[in-house]
Amino acid sequence: MFERHKGGEKALLVHVFLPQDNDIEDLNEFEVLVSSAHIEILDIITTSRKAPSAKYFIGEGKATEIAALVKEHDAAVILVNHSLTPTQERNLEKLCECKVVDRTGVILDIFAQRARTHEGKLQVELAQLQYISTRLVRGWTHLERQKGGIGLRGPGETQLETDRRLIRHRIQLILSRLDKVAKQREQNRQSRIKADLSTISLVGYTNAGKSTLFNAMTDADVYTANQLFATLDPTLRRIAVDDVGDVVIADTVGFIRHLPHNLVAAFKATLLETKEAALLLHVIDASDPNQFDNIQAVNEVLFEIEAHEIPTLLVMNKIDLLEEKVPSIDRDENGVPIRVWLSAQNKVGLDLLLTALKERLAKQIQTGELHIPAYLSRLRSRFYQLKAVEQEIINEDGSFNLNIRLPLIEWNRLCKQESDLLYLINEHSLVK
């Protein structure tokens, strides 16, 4: 019976050129990913196909060629720069007699190496279990046998069914623990709202320089390195912005093309800091020739976590790697800052970033007096739930005059949820 082979540190890379993909960039990025996982690349095998093969993803001839190269190089693992089905993965392993890991598996391995906090380790384990659970059926056929022996004979639970049950139980346990983490983060977020503290979230493609910028702005000592996914665990610090006051800035995990959906789900509690931010700082490596593709990849993840409507300020980082580029602020036709050019590594242009933050955040708070009729007291409760009421006057007819103050993103979200609030605004009941 064929068994899975143990993994190693020497690998063959496999990439299939497909018509719909931006292949060269994806392959170069995959090489960096593999290097970030501290794996030695023995050789890179490429092939072209109009569509993936159902059996091996690659063609059968190319699969046979790879099997020969495995023996020639004495490779321990084959890394495929695509998402494989469990069947394709199993077929390749059987043919090559070598462990096969797809792109998702490589990213999960890097995440497992980088997770430092208890929460981060739980999130990575959850993603790994969700990934493995889909590969039990084809991955371990020898586990289909039922338990035997004295006291265990007869119809009963197979070893495979036992493993499935144990994985489901572990996933539920981790989800329960992460739910507690999410509740704690929500309590902290509500405390910041109560203290009138806006949150700024750093987002961007992995290795764009988010943590370096975070350290430069906050004098923190978050781990930084010229590698993909150096940051997994979110870090929050408080900084002062002129004419705005204290704000909280959050450093978050970087994004990447084809980020596995189960990773996005596993890091839901972490990404909540991004989803609930008043302003996003989208950090971009200005020296990267693929920056526009990277921006698109980040925007896709922001859309997936429902953070695409949050106001965003672009931060063009690493201008020290560009010739004759000086720190500056780009503005739209209304004079609002939309882009800041700086170098976080050299701490050049940080004053311009703070200036842009001051101008953007000053416009991110909704304030005013709102008259709410007695029959819409439910709206009053919503504002109290958001801790947005600064002062209240109860009128003789039972109506309410509320002085409100809340982040603009919360205001816009409430307007979408409550049609009655839009009616009040249209009736000119909000005095700014």
From TrEMBL:
Keyword vocabulary terms for this entry: Cytoplasm, GTP-binding, Magnesium, Metal-binding, Nucleotide-binding
InterPro entries in UniProt: EFG_III/V, G_HFLX_dom, GTP-bd, GTP-bd_M, GTPase_HflX, GTPase_HflX_N, GTPase_HflX_N_sf, P-loop_NTPase
Residues that coordinate or bind Mg(2+): S211, T231
Keyword check for NADP: no
GO molecular function per UniProt: GTP binding; GTPase activity; guanosine tetraphosphate binding; metal ion binding; ribosome binding
Subcellular location, record wording: Cytoplasm
Domain Hflx-type G as annotated: residue spans: 198-365
Cofactor(s) the protein requires to work: Mg(2+)
Cellular component, GO, one term: cytoplasm
Coiled coil: none
Binding residue positions for GTP: 204-211, 229-233, 251-254, 317-320, 343-345
UniProt family annotation: Belongs to the TRAFAC class OBG-HflX-like GTPase superfamily. HflX GTPase family.
Database matches in HAMAP family: GTPase_HflX (MF_00900)
NCBIfam families, per the entry: GTP_HflX, PRK11058.1
Record's subunit section: Monomer. Associates with the 50S ribosomal subunit.
Record function comment: GTPase that associates with the 50S ribosomal subunit and may have a role during protein synthesis or ribosome biogenesis.
Official protein name in the record: GTPase HflX
Species assigned in the record: Orbus hercynius
